[in-house]
TrEMBL record:
It is a multi-pass membrane protein. The lineage of its organism: Eukaryota, Fungi, Dikarya, Ascomycota, Pezizomycotina. GO terms for cellular component: membrane. Residues 45-226 form the Rhodopsin domain. The chain crosses the membrane at residues 26-49, 61-87, 107-127, 139-163, 183-207. This is Rhodopsin domain-containing protein. Keywords: Membrane, Transmembrane, Transmembrane helix.
Length: 248
């Protein structure tokens, strides 16, 4: 899950990485940059196709751009925490800044996946505008927004005062169980991903087409189950679905 810069607090004013941690962050850096490039390319091609076909922009398009902004912001935070600024040792950054990045990264991540998931659900409503399916989509959208808002608020308030997250020397400051919170957020996020993947399956299975084509279509929609934790990959999936069904 691309949720954390994984900086390690020490008694000094500098956060550093052990060699094995640095190897992880190099791989993480490559993954983030590659899929960020895919996401940007996919969004640009989507808007180019809209222009060529002279189609008006719709809500999923605007949500896609907003989600991309937050996803790239989260990527930037992780990349900065991993590699910049280069001091004597790669990956060394001021301790307080490192803790601030650790605080900011999951908030950007939750916001990005929530917005992109909303874009996918909105796209579903465009592709399958039946009344019963729209009701189901609105319910899924409400759950998605509730998840995002709750996760952000909980992550912000788990330490009191909030500043205690990056200034642990504050007197009388305290934090709850961050690991348990992260686990609950991850589980709820996975359940949201499963819901979004399962949501269109009954509609797809009811289409008057060959069974092999139904399976192929469901597989395309099911790509999202693998991408749920990575906003850049979710964006690519959303563009694939739009391209398949919106004539892109």
């Amino acid at each position: 899950m691309a949720r954390s810069t994984a900086q390690r607090a020490t008694g000094s004013r500098i956060l550093t990485y052990a060699p094995e941690e640095m190897q992880y962050h190099v791989a993480h850096f490559v993954l983030l940059v590659v899929f960020s490039g895919f996401a940007i390319t996919a969004v640009v091609l989507r808007f180019w196709a809209r222009k060529v076909q002279k189609q008006a922009l719709a809500l999923p398009d605007y949500l896609t751009v907003l989600g991309l902004i937050f996803a790239l912001g989260e990527t930037g935070v992780n990349v900065y925490g991993c590699c910049f600024p280069i001091q004597r040792r790669l990956g060394s950054i001021p301790k307080e800044m490192g803790l601030q990045l650790m605080f900011l990264s999951p908030i950007l991540w939750v916001t990005a996946v929530t917005i992109i998931r909303a874009a996918i659900i909105s796209l579903y409503m465009q592709l399958f505008p039946t009344r019963s399916f729209r009701i189901a989509c609105h319910a899924a959208l409400a759950l998605n927004v509730a998840f995002g808002a709750t996760a952000v608020i909980a992550d912000c308030l788990i330490c009191q005062p909030i500043r205690y997250r990056w200034a642990p020397t504050i007197v009388h400051g305290s934090c709850g169980d961050q690991k348990s919170l992260d686990m609950y957020i991850a589980i709820l996020n996975l359940l949201q991903d499963v819901l979004v993947v399962v949501l269109p399956i009954p509609v797809l299975w009811g289409l008057q087409i060959a069974r092999s084509r139904k399976v192929a279509l469901i597989s395309i929609f099911g790509i999202g189950i693998m991408y749920g934790s990575h906003p850049e990959q979710m964006l690519v999936k959303q563009i694939l679905v739009a391209s398949k069904y919106a004539g892109c």
